[in-house]
Specification:
About 50% of the residues lie in helices and about 10% in strands. With about 400 residues, the chain is α/β, with parallel strands linked by helices. Helix 6 crosses helix 7, helix 7 packs across helix 8 and helix 8 packs across helix 9.
Length: about 400
């Protein structure tokens, strides 16, 4: 069995992980679970920060009593809004279809056996609807199919929220299957359409690359063979994008594994320099420890053609491949990722500071994209889980 590489995290990763505890009010266990790291490691990083051994741009690392109270009120408000939305959308439907006594029986059953449904919202749904039942007209008959649709709708909405509003019917079906709920694709489509559940609207994405330089370039060894990998750490693709903030541009450099769809390394800075891309490559290498021979593909940007970056690639035993001039399709998987992060996350914010943008990018990549989001390229599986399966099954 192939050994899973021991991950080594950069100081930037550690700082952003600490923010999940210090600024978002998560417990150590919650933050560790979201990032798939050991709780002990996160506690160690916080201890290093407090003793001044971990450089950080953070202010106070602990929430005041007022800030903690605000966090609690925000959570309570979110629950109240969820209850309001459930009642608003379900009351009219139930008033026409539900028989009072029958629904009371079903809801009592759900409340006594919350494990019969996998979502927290199903229990909340039952609690919210109990008061409304007394005012519903008797004599209406609700069929077992309708009751099953009611339960399935709650699970569909929960899956839709877990996918941050981007999942279509197929991914919702696979998400439900992972929770032990089997439902047909056409049935999911019908309920989504009936209740107005739609994917997040996507905006147009534009890519720019500065290749006007006299530095040596490498041939296009990848040649758009994006689906030819058979294991992790065979081909990595890399690129840079920019994120607008009120303080100026924030630049993000990232590397993606073509086999697992994971973002294996990243770095952010206020300047687009060779240091930015070398930091991203170092973070990817020390997290994955690939064997010599990995194919590294990028565009012809001056940062990737620099002597420092090419030297670092050589020291890691990597082969270098570059896109043809002005051809973004040669690096389509990486362009696709940047389009995805912008349309699914960044386009929904206006950032006052680069620090705010960094936190959103970190949370999207490390919490959502790598560990929650299902990817069609790998059969609607989650990248981190798919990577572990690959290591576990490798001879």
């Amino acid at each position: 069995m192939k050994r899973i590489p021991r991950r080594i995290f950069t100081a930037e990763f550690k700082r952003e992980a600490i923010k999940l505890v210090a600024e978002q009010g998560l417990t150590f266990a919650e933050a560790s679970r979201k990032l798939d790291i050991a709780t002990k490691s996160l506690r160690t990083w916080v201890d290093q920060l407090e003793r001044g051994k971990l450089k950080s741009s953070l202010g106070a690392s602990k929430l005041t009593a007022d800030q903690q109270r605000i966090r609690e009120l925000e959570r309570e408000l979110a629950i109240a809004r969820m209850e309001r939305d459930i009642l608003k959308k379900a009351a009219a439907f139930f008033a026409k279809e539900a028989q009072s006594a029958g629904c009371r029986s079903e809801i009592r059953h759900d409340r006594q056996t919350p494990s019969s449904t996998s979502g927290y919202q199903a229990l909340r749904f039952a609690q919210c609807c109990q008061e409304r039942l007394s005012g519903w007209s008797a004599g209406k008959v609700v069929t077992p199919r309708k009751l099953a649709d009611m339960r399935l709708l709650v699970e569909i909405k929960a899956a839709h929220q877990r996918g941050r509003g981007i999942y279509g019917p197929k991914k919702i079906r696979d998400e439900l299957a992972a929770q032990g709920i089997i439902a047909g694709l056409n049935r999911i489509k019908r309920l989504r359409k009936l209740h107005g559940i739609r994917c997040t609207h996507k905006q147009k994405f534009r890519v720019t690359t500065d290749s006007k330089h006299n530095l040596p370039v490498a041939p296009n060894l990848l040649d758009r063979q994006f689906a030819q990998t058979t294991a992790p750490n065979q081909v990595w693709v890399a690129d840079i994008t920019y994120i607008p903030t009120d303080e100026g541009w924030l630049y993000l450099a990232a590397l993606k594994d073509l086999h697992t769809c994971e973002i294996v390394g990243w770095a952010m800075d206020s300047r687009m320099t060779q240091t930015l891309v070398t930091d991203a490559l170092r973070s990817a290498y020390w997290r994955k420890k690939p064997q010599p021979g990995l194919l590294h593909h990028s565009d012809r940007g001056s940062q990737y053609c620099s002597a420092a970056y090419r030297s670092l690639q050589a020291s890691y035993g990597m082969e270098t491949s570059m896109s043809r001039k002005g051809n973004c399709w040669d690096n389509a998987p990486m362009e696709s990722f940047f389009g995805t992060i912008k349309t699914e996350s960044l386009h929904h914010y206006r950032f006052a500071t680069r620090a705010q943008a960094k936190q959103v990018v970190f949370e999207y990549i490390e919490v959502f994209y790598n560990r929650i989001r299902r990817h069609a390229k790998i059969g609607n599986q989650i990248p981190s889980e798919f990577a572990y399966q690959c290591y576990a099954t490798a001879a």
